[in-house]
């Protein structure tokens, strides 16, 4: 972690926030790996030219974000769990009949337990971005499913799923209950198999609902993915809005030579 030159002061954030940001970046980049021991408080004080109190505040920020953990009598270590890498366009194919949604099984294969809580289901006015994706007027009724995905019992992602009423009304997509296989299975059974999707990914600070539901430790960015899912003839049949804690996830894209 020793830098050739002292870390500059950006003149805006408090010094402990800057130190936490520097160490956080090293963890996210893999320069500090899960299980690695951080330098001692004395070493960090010397490296960043700050007082002990500032170092402790920086470490507390990272502890609250679950990047580091204290082992009594041994020191402070990078948390054993690395940030989750999410592949864009992860589950375009419906699972076989009776099989769980691949988000669940994929995390199980990584030794983690995935689950979901259904928050609400109903017809709601289409937000502007959703309406544009479906080619309808803003405020037109759409079927909306809102859920919270969890990993090992902890909140991981808030999801909103939107459907045109002519597709979803009167189907399992509009029912206040979960179904096996997720929406790809239901859409396929209705005759709308997923053929592709387009993602827009951005960051912003969390809304109040997101802050509370995801149990964020402070006012930090969330990773927001806006996905439009298409069936045959490039017809949009589903819009997904997925919000994750920004410090816990990275999105992976695979680009081919032909740009697919």
TrEMBL record:
Which superkingdom heads the taxonomic lineage of this protein's source? Bacteria
Ranges for the HTH gntR-type domain? Answer: 13-81
Record's keyword terms, sorted:
DNA-binding, Transcription, Transcription regulation
Q: Which GO terms describe its biological process?
A: negative regulation of DNA-templated transcription
GO function terms (MF aspect): DNA binding; DNA-binding transcription factor activity
Does the record carry Transcription as a key word? yes
UniProt cross-references to InterPro entries, sorted A to Z: Bact_HTH_transcr_reg, Chorismate_lyase_/UTRA_dom_sf, Tscrpt_reg_HTH_GntR, UTRA, WH-like_DNA-bd_sf, WH_DNA-bd_sf
A Pfam family it matches: GntR
Keyword Transcription assigned to the entry: answer is yes
Q: Name the PANTHER family on file.
A: GNTR-FAMILY TRANSCRIPTIONAL REGULATOR, MANNOSYL-D-GLYCERATE TRANSPORT/METABOLISM SYSTEM REPRESSOR MNGR-RELATED
State the name under which the record lists this protein. Answer: GntR family transcriptional regulator
Species: Paractinoplanes ferrugineus
